[in-house]
Specification:
Layout lengths: L22 H4 L5 H26 L4 H17 L13 H14 L1 H4 L16 H11 L3 H4 L5 H30 L3 H12 L3 H5 L2 H8 L3 H25 L4 H12 L5
Helix pairs in contact: 2-3, 2-4, 2-8, 8-9, 8-12, 9-12, 11-12
Length: 261
């Protein structure tokens, strides 16, 4: 059974998102609502990479890393952090990482991070989930301390940023599938592309069809739909976090291996 939602939200070939909205530029907007929307997206995409990076690169205890992450993104929100970002000089994630390094290195200011007034912004961040992810990857702070060179930590931060981007896309796909009554589509995507369980990895399309009470062709079509939508959503999120079309195309090539026409 062919899926009739092939190009929903796409531009015809499913490769690049139609939106040109940039959270990086909107974060500088004079419109409070637009600015808040942009900052919410950017904080959501970057807080986990920053937290994990501080834990590993600076070998910080969990509570200290949480406080420093809160302080960093409070500054992002309150002090026009992105006003001084120049996409011609660096990628956004490089800018974020270098700024985080600068804040943590300044121990005198960092030591006063808990003395902020009662009006300070406090972000609701799920640090437990970040710790769980660190545990899964084996990236405990102490064992990696000797590996915290500039090159290795730059690569670590980049991988964590891509992980965060994909996690946001997966969650959006889940909500979208629920809204559209396509829970089976998402569950098949979870089993085949997200789960590490050996039994799930060995499951054939015949097994999946029997488990879900659908035809094998439905398994194929449902998976195709979910994978296509995931890539579309991930590209949309990526586009929102780029300051220019050129930057977006460079990032798309680096992450997805897509060469724009």
């Amino acid at each position: 059974m062919a899926d009739d939602d092939t190009n929903i939200g796409g531009d015809g070939d499913g490769r690049f998102p139609p939106t040109r909205w940039s959270a990086v530029l909107a974060a500088r907007s004079d419109d409070p609502a637009e600015r808040a929307r942009a900052l919410d997206l950017l904080v959501g995409a970057y807080w986990k990479p920053v937290y994990k990076y501080i834990r590993i690169r600076w070998n910080k205890p969990r509570e200290d890393a949480q406080d420093l992450t809160q302080e960093f993104f409070t500054r992002v929100i309150e002090k026009g952090f992105f006003d001084r970002y120049d996409p011609a000089k660096a990628r956004l994630r490089t800018f974020v990482r270098v700024c985080a390094d600068g804040m943590v290195a300044n121990d005198a200011k960092a030591a006063g991070r808990l003395k902020r007034g009662g009006d300070a912004v406090h972000l609701s961040l799920d640090f437990d989930s970040a710790e769980t992810e660190l545990g899964r990857t084996g990236a405990a702070p102490a064992p990696l301390r000797e590996l915290a060179s500039t090159d290795s930590m730059e690569e670590f931060f980049e991988k964590e940023w891509v992980r965060s981007l994909f996690s946001l896309a997966v969650e959006m796909l889940r909500r979208d599938c629920e809204r559209r009554g396509k829970q089976i589509h998402f569950r098949l995507f979870e089993i085949c592309d997200l789960e590490d369980d050996d039994a799930a990895a060995r499951a054939s399309y015949d097994d999946l069809a029997r488990d879900f009470g659908i035809a094998v062709t439905d398994v194929t079509n449902h998976l195709s739909f979910a994978r296509r939508e995931f890539r579309r959503i991930a590209l949309e999120k990526l586009r929102e976090m780029c300051a220019s079309e050129d930057e977006f195309r460079r990032e798309a090539r680096a992450i997805f291996g897509i060469v724009p026409a």
